[in-house]
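To: structure subgroup
Subject: Chain for Friday's discussion

All,

I'm putting the inputs and outputs inline so they're searchable in the archive.
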Amino acid sequence: MMAASPSAAGGFTPTGLSVRKSEEIVDLIDLFSKTLYRAKEVSPRMEAIEKRCLELFGRDYKYSIIHNPNGEVCGHYPRQIVFLEYECTDVERDRFEASVQINKLQDLVNRSKLARCRGRFVCPVILYNGKHICRSSTLAGWGELYGRTGYNYIFSGGSDDTWAESEEVPEDDSAARNGDSQLFDKVRGHDIKLLRYLSVRYICDLMVENKKVKFGLNVTSSEKVDKAQRYADFTLLSVPYPGCEFFKDYKDRDYTAEGLVFNWNQDYVDAPLTIPLCFTQNLNIDWTQYQSWDLVEQTQNYLKLLLHIINCDDESGLLVHCISGWDRTPLFVSLLRLSLWADGAVHASLEPAEILYLTIAYDWFLFGHMLPDRLSKGEEIFFFCFNFLKHIVSEKFSAVKKRRRTNSHFKDGDFTVEDLCQLSKSPSTRPPCSDFRDRGSVTSLSSDFSLITEEVGGASSLSNDTTDLFSSQPLGSSWRKGPASSPQMVVWNKPNPLEEHLPHPLIDTKSSSSSSSNQSEHMAMRSGSSPLAVPGRRCPFPSERQARLEAVREVFLAAYSSTVGLKSSAPSPSGAISGLLEQFARGVGLRGTNAII
């Protein structure tokens, strides 16, 4: 068998080593598709996966271990959670070693585990420029909180002095409210201490709900609706993104994300898009239209936003979470890891098959994604993640600073994420949201706004006054600006279903998967165009970023083809799905047997 590795010309050449690494991916996906990882029930094959992840992390980083033996801290997290301290080649390693002590971190983890749904505490998973990108679930509601504290108290023999004084539920209403407040103060206080210890300032909540409700009860909560505003010192972003159920529609449309729009008019959807003004600058995205975006555009724009956040603050980290933290959360964590890797910014020594193994094994499998259940329901968010790589090959998604340009008349495609961050910084080089309560923006979100009007290297003017972002762009009644928690926040509310007719979640599209892929690749090549003649700009070979991401996607599709396969909802006359997987399977020497089931 023959596998693919990057060549100097941007193509691929076969190597025996790559074949073995590709087979390693096959074995991993095969186990993942049949078995759910639980820290207290680890088989020899799972132990080998855990060991392999540690070896891959160790290639580029000095790390410590947050211990979770037999899932005692969290049953759905790895037994050995990697805390990345610094890059092995980092000349400033002493600064990172001194900033966080692993024993203190372990203690904070143990104390904060009850604050979040299913005990899935804030966990650092990516180290980028000395900043931690973290994942977790959302905040636990009172029902789970009381249930878990009572359970822990009973089975610890009453010896858990951290929670013992809060076990009894008060009987009268006023006392109950007071008791709730005290218990939430305690557990969420530990959660906040952990966030601060990891220098996390930005929290991106992917929930489409303010609170998760089941059987009429609030099962979970979130930072954005904490009544006591305990998280007011953090920069909170509500970026609602469809849950795993929506990806059943993706599978039923023969894995075509183009034209697939989420139905925002459902009763349980009540979380508005809320982003600080300092992050809406310079991205050239009309956020007022987010409910009309298809799955491709929505995922692209959210990824741009996350990259923008981690680039615009030199010191603060980021937390990304959904409800349970095992579907949408690994989707964006994995895309962030792969995008930064493609830029050479993280895991610099890993090859395409190795970074693919690491993100599947660690970000998805060991953190409890329930792939067997999702596959049985057709909710193929896992496949979507890696097939989506074809939509982020453009340099517009690059987080690495390119050579500064001297001409002010550029197309949007010429700017990387870091270029845009530089434009948004003030002359004092403060992070744009470092004091967001005292700063506003004069930038309009009008679709007429263009980066062409910005001077490279300059700074957007900021004022203390609040600017109505909608003043220059009349909106239909389906788009309404709602109240925000601070003058510098913009909130887009869900329209009234009685007044407006939103598109059906399945919008017909004439583009097929193959044609959209070709169009995406064509646009990616065009996005780098410039009105000035730049040597090498028109080179037909793909960029290094594009070649790296396409190599990852190729290995994934081949492995997926030979294990899980794609399950078409109806026979495809063109055979597009089977043809796509066969193409990649042959390319890396793994001919698929399960292309269509």
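Points worth raising on Friday:
The chain has a mean pLDDT of 73.
The first strand starts at residue 5 and ends at 6.

D.
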